[in-house]
Specification:
The complex is a heterodimer of chains A (about 190) and B (about 230). Chain A is mostly helical and about 190 residues long. Chain A is built from ten helices and no strands. In chain B, about 35% of the residues lie in helices and about 25% in strands. Classes of the chains: A mainly alpha (about 190), B alpha+beta (about 230).
Chain lengths: ~190, ~230
Amino acid sequence: MTAQDPVARDRAATAPAGLAALLVRTARGDAAAFEAVYENVAAAVFGVALRVIRDPAQSEEVAQEVLLEIWRTAFRFDPGKGSAMAWVMTVAHRRAVDRVRSVQREAERERRLPVEGTPYDEVAEAVETSLEAERVRRCLRGLTDLQRESVTLAYYGGYTYAQVATLLGVATGTVKTRMRDALIRLRDCLGVAT
Amino acid sequence: MTTEEPHTLAGAYALDALDPLDSKRFERHLAGCAACAQEVTELRETSARLGTATAVPPPPGLKDRVLAAAARTSQHGPAAPARFPRRIFLVIPAAAAAGVLIAIATIFGLASSDANQRLTQAQQSSQAIAAVLTAADARMMTGTVSGGGNATIVMSHHMAALVFTAAGLPAAGGYELWLVGPRGEHSAEAVTVSSHGMVAPMIADGLRPGDHLMLIAEPAGGTVLDIRL
């Protein structure tokens, strides 16, 4: 638990609690609750798939798989182990990363390697009107270059830490440490409540 | 992964930046390290914010496809049993089932401080209960309730109904009895638990083959019993 600002605390106390209740009802087979879950998470699920996979058609396919997985496995959501949105995003991000890595195994991605400084700018372009995006962008800016690149290559690029180390030309141990340090700093900056 | 401190992988894990082998190893480490689990929870909350910051309205057709697919998809796939570690059921022939249930009802009646009221209630539905108990296809199942107690069910698909009774439930808190169909359609009834933790035989109708019977603890909403009927 860390210090947090009142806005973050308010959000943590209201919206996610509602989503958690909807997931619990979804786990019992409540189709209306699942439709409400869809309304709450579809944009975040599709957005993260699109950010990681980039191809809109594949992203939509993965988003559909993720949302169906949420329907099937809502019972795995444990309100005692983090927020409902974090659970949903974990499911979504893992699926998106799996898709990218399976494609990667077959052929090198066409994606150009990001150059220094671009990843968080791309985030900004994608979400220019969102207050949440602005907060995330501001907090990413507060990281060191190596921390920021480690996080964005892993999360938005879908690379493993070993791949990130190769891309950045640093030791794997360094990347691991930077990823953890970066998330801890982001956690504090964003006022993440658990 | 090398032999170095596994804890340093918490960040990479929360970013899904481990390969599957490292990921499994780290999860084993997490299972025995409460502080690490807490840190991972916090870092997951953080990485989720990187995700929600990229929200984009999905294509308009997605919602209909997802809801249609969900309507066709059972929630109880091969992985489901992990949720219900205490599913121990016996299937007993009908005649024995009726005997056991009547014995339970009798014990309940004798043990309950408000026996008369309960017996009256039981008698009101006794015809329906008797019909299920004596149905040619009656089957009995018993299950262990998470958190304590045992449930006994006698069901008849021919009668599309079941009789539910339980004993040894924690006295505190209420329960709901749910019948959940393969497409999520369901019915729910409040369960009256006596101060002795017993539930008088109650009838639930509208049973369809493949339904799950769930006992839900209120208000937390935890599933404490799940039986596929």
